[in-house]
Design brief:
The protein has 443 residues and is an alpha/beta fold. It folds into 2 domains: 302 residues, Adenylosuccinate Synthetase, Chain A, domain 3 (Alpha-Beta Complex); 95 residues, Adenylosuccinate Synthetase, subunit A, domain 2 (Orthogonal Bundle). Helix content is 33%, strand content 20%. The strands form 4 sheets. The chain has a 10-stranded mixed beta sheet, sandwiched between helices. Strands 12, 13, 15, 16 and 17 form a 5-stranded mixed beta sheet that branches. A two-stranded antiparallel ribbon has the order 3-4. A hairpin with a 2-residue loop joins strand 3 and strand 4. Helix 5 packs across helix 6. The two termini are 26 Å apart. Bound molecules: guanosine-5'-diphosphate, 6-O-phosphoryl inosine monophosphate and magnesium ion. 6-O-phosphoryl inosine monophosphate binds next to helix 4. The site of magnesium ion has 5 residues, from loops.
């Protein structure tokens, strides 16, 4: 495997948790590199369903090391709720390391997220209200608290000062009630004792693992179209979920990454506001929502559903340098007599084949569809590509053709077992780096 990145190729919730858990079987390390508890990753193992917000989806194997990198924001309350719940369910959670450079997310960030959303009125982003934006704002403004600071004497004074400062915004800008600084210090104190043993220089741990040739899996949260730079700004999150974010958010160089896998549903969903060209607002959208159980893992909100958007997927391939695609939730389309792929947009008489930066343009784009036969058979039991009905195989192959990227895996149900492997990740790596040769640059 060596160093493999898993990124969401759409607007999040592509099934990254399931895919990471599946591939983690062959990994030694599983690393989250950005985001926070806005993520909701679901892993289904037999009759058990687990929902992860911060803990990497490698935690279900007792021998894997899990890391939360510096690019993530840590809400200690949710982190320990998650750890305690997993421990109660019999999982070992001692193999977790958290970067001492990661930033802390405190209750005032959550309150500010709420207040900012309320003040936006009709212009709401539809955030998860987990405090993510305000926590990253503090980081970028160079006034955030890093978890490593909690090791140092006097951290209480820093927290106290931060609360005093935040109260200014909360009270003067929003007319809301702030926090008692002592209250936040005392709220944090028990978490500090629990957090310290997990803290480490995680970039160093990863560098050593890379040097030893260990298999390392980076688990993206959110998705390409939610990326702060490359997504549908301002309807995005405040971090960099794209593959480039791995270098910044985990502290490894780009030369260490061997493979980038993009995860996409067989259709498209979006939770929160913002343009969505292939959205289906009628009964077909509702059918996908019900069959796909498209309700947010973190917020329970119904997800907006639509056909697979190849223009967007090709954009995600480019931005992330995706070498292999993983198509999830194929089974959700099982009953459809016809299935569609959006291959271009029509905008004011012009044909667009590249994803536009302007939301105003995107809003007015009319999808151009290619229609394919549906398969109208159950795919949930398929374990090999040849067990998929011919029209389903054709649909998957067409996605590969239109994006120019091989499909390496297809998921046909939420369970770990409901997975069809087309190409072993190892074989892809061998194709990329021909054995016995490092290419003309070295000759
Ligand atoms: P993530 O945020 O990318 O990890 O995705 P979520 O866990 O938020 O959402 C994906 C949902 O689809 C979860 O409920 C998964 O259990 C479920 N899921 C994943 N893969 C499949 C699949 O192939 N078929 C079906 N029916 N459900 C799936
Ligand atoms: P996973 O990792 C889907 C969306 C929110 C909102 C926007 C900004 O489970 O795929 P934020 O709280 O981050 O400031 O919200 O981003 N969003 C997600 N949508 N999946 C996620 O994570 C998301 N994390 C954030 O709905 O539109
Ligand atoms: Mg999710």
């Amino acid at each position: 495997m060596p160093v493999v990145v898993i990124v969401g190729a759409q607007w999040g919730d592509e099934g990254k948790g399931k895919v990471t858990d599946f591939l983690a079987r062959d990994a030694d390390y599983v690393v989250r590199y950005q985001g926070g508890t806005n993520a909701g990753h679901t892993v289904v193992i037999g009759s058990q369903e687990f929902r992860l917000h911060l803990i990497p989806s490698g935690i279900f194997y007792p021998d894997k090391v899990c890391i939360i990198g510096n690019g993530a924001v840590i809400d200690p309350e949710v982190l320990f709720q998650e750890l305690d719940a997993f421990r109660d369910r019999g999982l070992q959670t001692a193999r977790l390391f958290i970067s001492d450079r990661a930033h802390l997310l405190l209750p005032y960030h959550r309150l500010l997220d709420e207040l900012e959303e309320e003040s936006r009125g009709k212009e709401q982003i539809g955030t998860t209200r987990r405090g993510i934006g305000p926590a990253y704002v503090d980081k970028v403004a160079r006034r955030g608290l890093r978890v490593g600071e909690l090791r140092e004497p006097g951290w209480e004074d820093r927290v106290f000062q931060m609360v005093v400062e935040k109260n200014e915004y909360i009270q003067k800008l929003y007319g809301a009630q702030g926090f008692e600084p002592e209250e936040i210090v005392e709220y944090l104190r028990p978490y500090v004792d629990r957090l310290l043993p997990y803290l480490a220089d995680t970039s160093l741990i990863i560098a050593q693992a890379v040097a030893e040739g260990k298999n390392i899996l980076f688990e993206g949260a959110q998705g390409t179209l939610l990326d702060l730079d490359h997504g549908t700004y301002p309807y995005v999150t405040s971090s960099s979920p794209t593959a480039g974010g791995v270098c910044i958010g985990a502290g490894i160089g780009p030369t260490s990454i061997d493979l980038v896998l993009g995860v996409s549903k067989a259709y498209t969903t979006r939770v929160g506001e913002g343009p969505f060209p292939t959205e289906l607002v009628g009964s077909q959208g509702e059918e996908i929502r019900q069959k796909g159980r498209e309700f947010g893992t973190t917020t329970g909100r119904p997800r907006r559903c639509g056909w697979l958007d190849i223009v967007m997927l090709r954009y995600a391939v480019r931005i992330n340098g995706i070498n292999g695609l993983i198509i999830t939730k194929l089974d959700v389309l099982d009953k459809m007599p016809k299935v569609r792929l959006c291959t271009a947009y029509r905008y004011k008489g012009e044909l667009l084949t590249e994803f536009p930066a302007s939301l105003r343009v995107l809003q007015e784009c009319v999808p151009v569809y290619e229609e394919l036969d549906g398969w109208q058979q159950d795919t949930g039991g398929a374990r090999t590509f040849s067990e998929l009905p011919a029209p389903a195989q054709n649909f998957v192959q067409r996605i590969a053709q239109l994006t120019g990227v091989p499909v390496v895996m297809v998921s046909v149900g939420p369970d770990r077992q409901q997975t069809v492997v087309l190409r072993e990740v190892f074989s892809l790596l061998e194709e990329k780096i021909p054995s016995g040769s490092k290419g003309p640059l070295y000759s």
